[in-house]
Amino acid sequence: MRKGTLQYCVLALLADEERYGFDLVRSLAETDGMVTSEGTIYPLLSRLRRDGLVETTWRESTSGPPRRYYRLTADGRRALDAFRGEWGRFRDAVDHFVEREAG
Amino acid sequence: MSTTPDKLVERYLKHLEVELGDVPRDRRREIVDEIAGHIAEARAGLEHETEADVRNILDGLGDPADIAEDAGERLEVERPTPPARHKAGATEVGALIMLLVGALILPVVGWVIGLVLLWVSNAWNVRDKWLGTLFVPGGLALGLFLLLFPTSSSQVSCPAIIDINGTTITPTCDTGSTTSFLGIAGAIVLLLLPLFTTGYLVYRLRHAPANATA
């Protein structure tokens, strides 16, 4: 499940601003339990790019070699919005059973 | 800076490249480049880099084998699901028949129909299609035509020589027979080539992975 939802977390991180790979990975890694191997984000980014959900631009960096920045495409935004709706319903449904069991 | 951290990184990236062997080359390049960039960014953020720092960065990225496994799963899904083997349909059978003997049924047009079917089909790759196109235009018709109607060049009569007495000497010369021998040999080659090509295209239908490149 983590694997399937990870790509939407990446899309969500890109919703408001473009980011470069290292920055994205750092943000994901800040939340425990999201990513076990940081390296796996890069195949995921490659996949998102081929699927047309994100696009990339190289930008000069002040501190080193140029960085590849990722940005959401219109398709990416649609996919994220669709997932948000679906996820909300799914989360509520799971909560409905799991929370009651615990309480 | 000690060379050890550099060596560690180098070894890691090489290892990753090997593990990603099944991933298409352009994506492998992209992934390895991005991860190399990640490592460089992480190292640039260190005040005094130690070997332990670098090892932590690499551990954070994860075992190359795990990354490759994940990449395989992720990118596999994306591949257009090609059927393991492309079944020879009417297009392929039609293409092979018309290329070989189409011109005998309908001069020129028959072969052209075969050609169109060949290029429309996605059971062969571009190289196969060129082979089918070039060997041999007209299929068997060209060779048969040359065999049945030897070219005029093989019928060239030897020039007559008139000697001083005014008598015409027709020298015996075997140029004609040599030419016609070459003509026949050529015609046989032209008959065999399309047969080989057809055989090869049939073989490719059965054994080639169908990676359609229309």
Tell me about this structure.
The complex is a heterodimer of chains A (103) and B (214). With 103 residues, chain A is of the alpha+beta class. The mean pLDDT of chain A is 90. In chain A, strand 2 and strand 3 form a beta hairpin. Chain A has a 3-stranded antiparallel sheet. With 214 residues, chain B is mainly α. In chain B, 66% of the residues lie in helices and 2% in strands. In chain B, strand 1 and strand 2 form a beta hairpin. Chain B starts with a helix and ends in a 7-residue tail after the last helix. Chains A and B meet through helix 2 and helix 3 of A and helix 2 and helix 4 of B.
Low-confidence stretches of chain A: none
Could you report the average pLDDT of chain A, rounded to the nearest whole number?
90
For this structure, the quaternary state is heterodimer
Q: Strand order of the main beta sheet of chain A, please? A: 1-3-2
State the separation between the terminal residues of chain B, measured CA to CA: 53 Å
Specify the biggest β-sheet of chain A. Answer: 3 strands, antiparallel
Beta-strand percent range of chain B: under 5%
Count of runs of 4 or more consecutive helical residues of chain B: 9
Structure keywords:
heterodimer; A: 103 residues; alpha+beta; three-stranded antiparallel beta sheet; 3 strands; 59% helix; 14% strand; globular; B: 214 residues; mainly alpha; two-stranded antiparallel ribbon; 9 helices; 2 strands; 2% strand; elongated
SSE blueprint and pairings:
The complex is a heterodimer of chains A (103) and B (214).
Chain A: H1 2-13, E1 19-20, H2 21-30, H3 41-50, E2 54-59, E3 67-72, H4 74-102
Chain B: H1 3-19, H2 25-44, H3 51-61, H4 64-78, H5 90-105, H6 109-120, H7 126-134, H8 140-148, E1 161-162, E2 168-169, H9 175-207
Antiparallel strand pairs in B: 1-2
